[in-house]
Design a protein that fits this description.
This is NIPSNAP family protein. Keywords: Signal. The chain is an alpha+beta fold. Helix content is 33%, strand content 24%. The chain is built from seven helices and eight strands. Strands 1-4-6-7-5-8-2-3 form an eight-stranded antiparallel β-sheet. A hairpin with a 5-residue loop joins β2 and β3.
Length: 288
C-alpha cells in the first residue's frame, strides 16, 4: 500500500467507495479502543489496480509494507481488502479523528528518515505490480448513515457502493437517502452502513457507502430484509424515492471486497478482535 505519510501520490487503495449498501456507522474506527465503535470522522481511501497475474506477488509486497511499518513503529494503521467483483483491485482504508490528526500522521515520516528510505524502496517494488492508483478523502455523514456500531476486526467482507451525483442535485439526493433511512428504521433493517461524502480526489459530488459483513452468507437474508424495507416505504414512497434517485444520480457502482491480513497494517485492537485471522502464527517447520 502507498502509505500516505511517505508516498501520497502512489496509492489509492480501497477507497471505500460504495451504497444500497451505505458505509455504516457500524464501521469501527481504525484506532478504536476495542469492541464496537463508530466509524472515523475522516477516511482516506487508496485504490490500486493490480496487473493481471500479479495478485500473489502484489500481496507479498504488501505484506512487506506491513513488516516495514511495524519495524519503524509507524502509528498510521490501515486495513486492506481485495476485490471479489469488478476490476482486479486492492483497496486500503485509513481513519482519522480530524484533519489535524491526518496532518500529524502525514508529518510523522519527516522524523523517521530510516523508515522513509525503506518505504521508498518498497514503493518501487510495489509499482511493478500495479496498472494504476488513485486516492480520495471522505468525511463521515452521520445523518446519512444507519445501524449500530460494529467491531471491524470481526468483519471479513465489505460491500462498497459509490454514488456519483449530478451537479447541483446534492441536497435533493440527500433527501432521497433520508427517505430510505426512515424505511430502514421502520423495517428494522438488519445491517449497518457508513456514508462518506468525498471531499477531494474524485468527481464531486460523490458519496461512498460502506457495509461491513461477517460473512457473505449475510447477503442470503437480504431478500427478506429488502421486502420488509419496500413494504415500509409503501407504493407511493417507492415511486417518490425512485424518481428522486433517477433525477439526482449519474451512476452507481457496487463492489464486493474481502479483507486481507496480508494487505493490512492493523492496530492492536483490531488484532485483538481475532488474532488468528489478523496475526496468524507462522507454520511450524518440520522436525529434522
Amino acid at each position: 500500500m502507498k502509505h500516505s505519510l511517505f508516498s501520497p501520490s502512489s496509492a489509492f487503495r480501497l477507497a471505500l467507495l460504495v451504497a444500497p449498501a451505505l458505509l455504516a456507522p457500524g464501521f469501527t474506527a481504525l484506532r478504536a479502543q476495542g469492541g464496537p465503535q463508530p466509524p472515523p470522522p475522516l477516511m482516506m481511501f487508496y485504490r490500486e489496480e493490480v496487473k493481471p497475474g500479479h495478485g500473489a506477488a502484489h500481496a507479498a509486497t504488501e505484506a512487506a509494507w506491513g513488516r516495514i511499518l511495524a519495524k519503524g513503529k509507524a502509528t498510521e494503521h490501515y486495513l486492506g481488502m481485495s476485490s471479489l467483483t469488478g476490476p482486479s483491485e486492492a483497496w486500503f482504508i485509513m481513519g482519522y479523528g480530524s484533519y489535524a490528526d491526518w496532518e500529524a500522521k502525514h508529518n510523522e515520516g519527516d522524523s523517521n528518515p530510516a523508515l522513509k528510505k525503506e518505504i521508498d524502496a518498497i514503493s518501487l517494488k510495489d509499482g511493478d505490480h500495479l496498472a494504476g492508483t488513485r486516492s480520495f478523502l471522505g468525511t463521515l455523514r452521520k445523518d446519512l448513515s444507519y445501524g449500530p456500531p460494529l467491531e471491524i476486526g470481526k468483519m471479513r467482507y465489505m460491500r462498497v457502493r459509490t454514488f456519483r451525483v449530478k451537479q447541483g442535485m446534492g441536497a435533493a439526493f440527500e433527501e432521497g437517502v433520508k427517505m430510505a433511512l426512515a424505511a430502514y428504521e421502520k423495517s428494522h433493517f438488519p445491517a449497518s452502513f457508513a456514508f462518506y461524502e468525498v471531499e477531494a480526489g474524485t468527481w464531486s459530488p460523490t458519496f461512498v457507502v460502506l457495509r461491513p459483513m461477517k460473512s457473505l452468507a449475510d447477503m442470503d437474508a437480504m431478500d427478506t430484509a429488502n421486502k420488509a424495507f419496500l413494504d415500509a416505504l409503501g407504493e407511493e414512497g417507492r415511486k417518490a424515492m425512485q424518481k428522486t434517485f433517477m433525477d439526482t444520480v449519474n451512476g452507481v457502482e457496487n463492489q464486493l471486497f474481502a479483507f486481507s491480513p496480508k494487505l493490512s497494517y492493523p492496530n492492536s485492537d483490531v488484532i485483538a478482535s481475532d488474532p488468528a485471522f489478523w496475526a496468524p502464527k507462522p507454520p511450524k517447520e518440520p522436525a529434522k
